[in-house]
């Protein structure tokens, strides 16, 4: 099974970095990682997926080095990071999702994606994978539902349980 995770505002509250991101001051961001925070339950979720051999890919429209810095800062191990420079097209285009599925030897039927933005939901739907809304980092839950999220979660623990139950019960989602 493969879980595709958005980074900003899904795994990590990076709101404090928004001005740097908007200005594309990527190198300076590393000096401000302490201004971010991991959402409660993320560490446990990642650990549970890792312990159950569920592969994880982080897909972001930001540069991969930015994602790696954040994931390293919080010691979040994932199997693959796909950043802005890794694909020609970006979310909501399905290309990054399809690349993750290919690189991690998965298939659409055994892949679930979660994110906090309409582009995350649309990318999942465009790729043909299960789309989940991370309402804990979302500013507009209605927009995610209107975009067609198949499952909505109020916290990372709910999403973790959903994935583990789907994986344990039927080895598919």
From TrEMBL:
Record keywords, A-Z: Hydrolase
Protein's organism: Succiniclasticum ruminis
GO biological process terms held by the UniProt record: DNA repair
Presence of the UniProt keyword Signal in the record: no
Signal peptide: none
One Gene Ontology CC term in the entry: cytosol
Pfam families tied to this protein: HAD_2
Protein name per the record: Haloacid dehalogenase-like hydrolase
Gene Ontology MF annotations: phosphoglycolate phosphatase activity
Domain of life where this protein originates: Bacteria
